[in-house]
Amino acid sequence: MEKLIPFINDLHDILSQAGLSSELNLPSIVVIGSQSVGKSSLLESIVGREFLPRGKGIVTRRPIEIQLHQVLDAEQGWFEFMDKRGEKIFESEDIRKLIETETDKIAGKNKGISPVPIKVKYFSKDILDLQLIDLPGITKNPVGDQPQDIEQKVLDIVMPFIKNQNSLILAVSKASDDLATSDGLKLARSVDPNGLRTIGVITQLDLMDEGADILNDLLNQTYPLQLGYVGVIMRGQKDIQKNKTIIEQIKDEKTFFEKHKIYKKYSEKMGVNFLVKTLNMNFIQHIKKALPIIRETIISLVQVKEYDLKQYGDYDNLETKENKNLLVLTLISKFSNSYKDMLEGRCLDITSKELIGGSRIIYVFNDNFRKTIQKMNPFDILSDDEIRTAIKNANGIRPSLFVPEGAFELLVRQQISRLRMPSIECSHIVFEELRRVINQISIPEIERFDTLANRISEVIENLLNKCLRQTEEIISNLIDIELGYINTSHPDFVSGMDMVNKDEQRSSQQQVQLQKEKSPLQSENESNKFFNFWPFKNNKQTELYDSKLDNLNKKRKSNINNEKQQKLQQIEESQILQQQIVINKIVSVNQQYFVNDPKRQLPQVPNTIKITDRPSKREQTEMDMIKDLLISYFNLVKKNICDSVPKTIITFLVNQSRNFCERELIGLLYKQELVDELLQENQFIQKSRAEAKQTLISLRTCLNLLNDLDSKF
Ligand code: GDP
Ligand code: MG
Q1: At CB < 8 A and 24+ separation, what contacts does 70-73 make?
Q2: What residue stretches are annotated with the GED domain (predicted)?
């Protein structure tokens, strides 16, 4: 049983060296209470040596962990400080100075505090094994460099120690304190409400007024704790000044209790020595309770570290060139398989709450690309005036007879061109998604080799770039194909004649109203105006149009064929020409007379001519029709593009990069001359592996210690 405390001390050592003590919550005794209640004095009394810094106000400014090791054959007690194992420090003065310097080093010189513990060991034949932690006292008023919230800062240091369910709490109060308001007890209650692991210590019983006593408190009647209270008397300031030793004080303490009118009945359960025995006994019990959890924690830590070590890879196996080559090959195929899995949705180990890999690409197509294209409307960028201008410009000097085909093609091409940018952008977004997938691939065996990981990224980045360029080109071609031939006979396209019919229906309703007002000739002209439009889909309409066209041609032909008339016409024309020459002469003669007549002068032609007047009825009809045709044809192209662009991206970017990934990597990286360079191990990994190995050794040592301990019971 008595081996338990040294065992725990060993665990503390082994695990703190491996940086694991905080993960294990090892048992320890934590001393808490207000400032100047006597915490440090108590520790010194327990150790039997004056080794702690002393002074007014806040002196203990970092947690001080003190391990007591009983060494039965030690003639003289000695300290060991922090990591200087084996270096014996015999003088209390020396260890105190070390503690002071170490405190200043981390917490500053002026009353600052720090949670980083200072570790001290004490070896002696006159002590019982213990592990104690002295903590800064609870204080409410900041002094020196202390921040305004000093109380909170101290609590931040104290709480983790006392929250540890495996710690025993030594709650120190002064005899003059009311137990109900004692800071130490209040804090202890907050983490141990049933008082199962708190021992109450009441100091300065010697300073009470004569006749006054706190027997009720000491007998656990005021504020009961499972482990009870112990009253102690330590050296006051005056005693210290008089160089009274701790041993002398312990003797005096004994006398005080034995002679005290009220306490003498209980004198055996009073004083520092009794407290040490109580602590030792309770601590052993406490450790016994904690052992199963400690064992479980160590076992799970071993598993974690073994896993870590596996992730860092076994470098010792990489002695031969063949092994190295094989490793490069294995890692390359692991990488390309991961890439495939991510794209095809087989990355089951990632429990992600968001879309990943291939599913993000489909989102890009459906929610990003398709929706944007569908929302595009020809009239986002095209005003009525622009359409009218386009119609007029396309007609040139000839007034249009038919549907202004030139204007339609010009405008529809303009619209199709608008699809080029979003389509190419879509391929760029998918490219970024693929890079994201690559970045998400995490293979620790690859990450341990910096150069290999970098070269893989480089090769894949180049491959993706190559695929992107090809994809861009094909997408651009898709748009060029749409631009290259405006297929107005596409079955999904609402042609000009459909528009005519639609418009005729619309106007026939108006006609009924207008008929009475208009002459029959006018009304016929109105209804026939649409025959001038292209293209015709309806056969009847086409025939009608053709017959009209034939008549016109026949008329012209018959005119030309009639020679007599031709001659007559020639004579007539020559007469007109002569008349014209005469008129011109008159004009030139008379010109000087008209120069100064402003009413006869034509206005100057402006540099830019814009349409400003309201469209005529005919213009309006032409415009409406062009608009309908534009929408119809643009929708048709949009549908094609929404289908063909994602197909192109999947085929030439996603699938190509996936299919060529492994081949490209092997081609560029699997080379005899590269292997040593590629398998240069990352220094951080080397360090982590060494640490993991060391930690594993420490943990296994702890497990062995535990097993040894079991075999002794
Ligand atoms: P801490 O701030 O809680 O660590 O308190 P210290 O151990 O530094 O003690 C504060 C002061 O109280 C010191 O001057 C001690 O000598 C004095 N002191 C502590 N305990 C007793 C005691 O039981 N009796 C008397 N008379 N003085 C004590
Ligand atoms: Mg102190």
Answers
A1: 70/6, 70/124, 70/125, 70/127, 70/128, 70/129, 71/123, 71/124, 71/125, 72/125, 73/125
A2: 623-713
Alpha-carbon distance of 135 to 117, in angstroms, equals 9
Buried b (16+ CB within 10 A) or exposed e, 118-134: bbbbbbbeebbbbbbbb
Q: Which amino acid is at 408?
A: F
Q: Hey, whose CA ends up nearest to atom 22 of ligand 1? A: 204
Which residue's CA lies nearest to atom 2 of ligand 1?
A: 36
Cα dihedral: 704, 705, 708, 710 (round 10): -100
CA distance 185 to 107: 27
pLDDT (0 to 100) of residue 59: 83
Pocket of ligand 1 (CB under 6 A): 33, 35-41, 59-60, 137, 203-204, 206-207, 233-237, 240
The contacts of residue 446 (CB under 8 Å, 6+ apart) are 331, 334, 335, 452, 453, 456
- Report which of 440, 442, 438 is spatially closest to residue 465, judged by C-alpha positions: 438
Report the C-alpha gap between 328 and 456 in whole angstroms: 11
Count Cα atoms within 13 angstroms, Cβ side, for 402: 12
Q: Ligand 2 centroid vs 89 CA: distance in angstroms?
A: 22
For a pLDDT cut of 90, what percent of the chain falls above it?
A: 42
For residue 204, give the ligand 1 atom closest to its CA: 23
Give residues with Cβ within 8 angstroms of 87, minimum separation 6.
80, 81
3-state secondary structure of 212: coil
Q: How far is the CA of 40 from the centre of ligand 1 (A)?
A: 8
| Nearest CA among 388, 468, 478 for reference residue 434 | 468
Query: Whole-model pTM above 0.85?
Result: no
- Residue-wise pLDDT for 263-316, tens only, equals 999 999 999 999 999 998 888 888 888 888 888 888 998 998 888 888 777 666
CB neighbour class for 68 (10 Å; exposed up to 12, middle 13-18, buried from 19): buried
How far is it, in rounded angstroms, from Cα 134 to Cα 64?
Answer: 5
Q: Look at strands 64-70 and 130-134 and give their pairing.
A: antiparallel
Q: Choose among 243, 234, 237, 207: nearest CA to 55.
A: 237
Indicate which atom in ligand 1 lies nearest the CA of residue 233: 23
Q: How confident is the model at residue 260 (pLDDT cuts 50, 70, 90)?
A: very high
Beta strands in 564-661 (DSSP E): none
**Residues ≥6 apart with Cβ < 8 Å to 150:** 113, 139, 140, 141, 142
Contact status, residue 369 vs residue 645, Cβ threshold 8 Å: yes
pLDDT of residue 403: 63
Q: Which of 41, 42, 61 to mutate to test the pocket of ligand 1 (most atoms within 8 A of CB)?
A: 41
| Res. 559: pLDDT tops 60 | no
Confidence of residue 596 (pLDDT cuts 50, 70, 90): low
Q: Whose CA is closest to 324, among 315, 333, 312?
A: 315
| Segment 635-653, tens digit of pLDDT | 999 999 999 999 999 999 9
Stated as kind and residue range, the H or E segment containing 395 is helix 384-395
Mean pLDDT of 462-466: 96
Number of other residues whose CB lies within 10 A of the CB of residue 396:
9
Q: What are phi and psi of 173, to 5 degrees?
A: -135, 160
> Residues 566, 572, 578, 584: what is their CA dihedral angle, to the nearest 10 degrees?
-110
- Phi, psi (rounded to 5 degrees) for 29: -105, 125
